[in-house]
Amino acid sequence: MERTMIGDIGRMDGKSVRLKGWIYRTRSGKGISFVVMRDPTGIVQCVVKEGTKGFSDAQKALIESSVELTGKVRKDERAPGGYEVQATDFSVVGFADDFPIKEQQSPELLLDNRHLWVRSQKLLRIFKVRSTILGAIHEYFRKNGFYEIQSPSITKMACEGGSTLFEMKYFGEKAYLTQSWQLHAEALAASLEKIYCIAPSFRAEKSRTRHHLAEYWHAEAEVAWIDHDESLRIQEGLVTHIVRECMKKHRSELKELGADMKALESVKAPFRRITYKETLELLNKKGTKTKWGDDITDLQIRTLSEDFKKPFFITNWPKSMRPFYMLENPKDKKTVLNADLIAPGESGGEIIGGSARESDPRKILAKLKEEGTDPANYGWYMDIRRFGSFPHAGFGMGVERLTQWICNVDHIRDCIAFPRTISRVYP
Ligand code: 4AD
Ligand code: MG
After folding, report:
1. Helix (DSSP H) and strand (DSSP E) numbers for the chain
2. Is 155 in the pocket of ligand 1 (CB under 6 A)?
3. If I label 24, which of 307, 347, 362, 385 is the partner at 20 to 30 A Cα–Cα?
């Protein structure tokens, strides 16, 4: 008999099915066992009665044992999912030891046992949404004429400043794990023009926040011949498409995770744009003391969320706060043509950073020196300006940040299967 996935059981009322999965919960009494099984598509209660083949194993098997069974599907209002399976043949494929994760465990224990905790319903739901998010990113870019391109993970260059670089020995010379594909992407934009990539980026973040990973998945795009406004339109189109796909496919997962369904429903391009300067004014009006050059904190984003229910762009940040490659604002040389896309709410924060790119090599060199970066390794990057410079813009979106906001997850580490943070590189 072919295997039935638990999620399809509703269509099999009265019929015989064969299930494979793991024991999610189990309770045995005299002459009867209630074994709740799980597979990726759902959970279902199976009843194994004395006299059924495999009954004694059903009585012995602990949670997370892997099992196979055949049985008859019966509607039962009281059962989780509304159906129950009356087993006719039950067998344990792999007996589980006493599972180390019980109810109400500390976050540390769950992280130490991440390789087992990935089986939990919570992480399963997040991983499903994450998979849809990644698919939707590819769909959006490919539908809009972008080529997918890859760039090296090992590099000689800092893209986002030296303080978060992971240093490595590279056959006797110093190299780094990349913070972003961007610098190489700028070279490739002179070839394919509209390009994107989804790859890991690395940040030696010394901060322990709910929003920082040391290794995260970065969805980045770079486009030739566009200005920054056009880049913002691509970004809001991308986020709108992703949220829509998630709402289409994962209503039940998102509800279970406690996502703000109304807020997600309302996500639709265009998003509001507010300058950095206006943001400070707004915050100060709300009683927060901020001044030019201050970063916008998590707490302040929550304050702003009272006014912004949808993601919004904070544009034109001070040049002094942003990296060397950002295009100086011709109307206000203190600022650059850039934006952070901010997702509102408790689980929100900066989900995209992007800008138009500076094409004046003198300005790039001056800024590199100001950052304390040795321009020696940036020779090839300068060549992009020397050989047919062109206007271009791009952005990078943190896949886990986006997942965290959409699913309303408290900590970013639950948005990736095996998180890498300042205090964790195991398992
Ligand atoms: O704002 P960032 O540093 O921008 C760049 O790397 C540009 N080079 C992107 C580009 O223009 N191609 O990073 C982009 C995004 C952030 O908005 C955030 O979503 C995510 O990457 N991000 C992180 N996500 C998780 N953990 C971290 N430590 C992150 N740092 C950045
Ligand atoms: Mg940023």
Report:
1. 13, 16
2. no
3. 347
List pLDDT tens digits, range 40-93. Answer: 999 999 999 999 999 999 999 999 999 999 999 999 998 888 999 999 999 999
CA of 33 to the centre of ligand 1 (A): 51
Is the CB of residue 193 less than 8 Å from the CB of residue 177?
no
252-259 contacts at long range (C-beta below 8 A, 24 or more positions apart):
253/125, 253/128, 253/129, 253/407, 254/129, 254/406, 254/407, 256/121, 256/125, 257/122, 257/125, 257/126, 257/129, 257/407, 257/408, 257/409, 258/408, 259/406, 259/407, 259/408
- Which atom, in ligand 1's list, is nearest to the CA of 220? 12
Q: Is the CB of 180 inside a 6 Å radius of any atom of ligand 1?
A: yes
CB 205 within 8 A of CB 371: no
CB within 8 A of 6, min separation 6: which ones? 19, 21, 37, 38, 39, 41, 42, 43, 44, 81
Alpha-carbon separation of residue 254 from 122, 172, 336 (angstroms): 10, 49, 37
**Two tokens at 153?**
């993970």
Q: What is the pTM of this model?
A: 0.97
How far is 33 from 35, CA to CA, in rounded Å? 6
Q: How far apart are CA 185 and CA 179, in angstroms?
A: 13
Tokens of residue 285, six digits: 């009006």
- Ligand 1 pocket residue status of 217, Cβ below 6 Å: no
Cα separation of 363 and 135, whole Å?
38
Looking from the CA of residue 352, the nearest atom of ligand 1 is: 17
Element (H, E) at 320: none
Is residue 215 within 6 Å of ligand 1 at its C-beta? no
Question: What tens digit of pLDDT does each residue of 131-147 get?
Answer: 999 999 999 999 999 99
Question: How far is ligand 2, taken at its centre, from the CA of residue 291, in Å?
Answer: 19
Calpha distance 342→276 (Å, rounded): 12
Q: Which of 312, 350, 420 most suits a substitution to test ligand 1, by most atoms within 8 Å of the C-beta?
A: 350
User: Is the Cβ atom of 349 under 6 angstroms away from ligand 1?
Assistant: no
Q: Which of 36, 42, 38, 48 is nearest to 91 (CA)?
A: 48
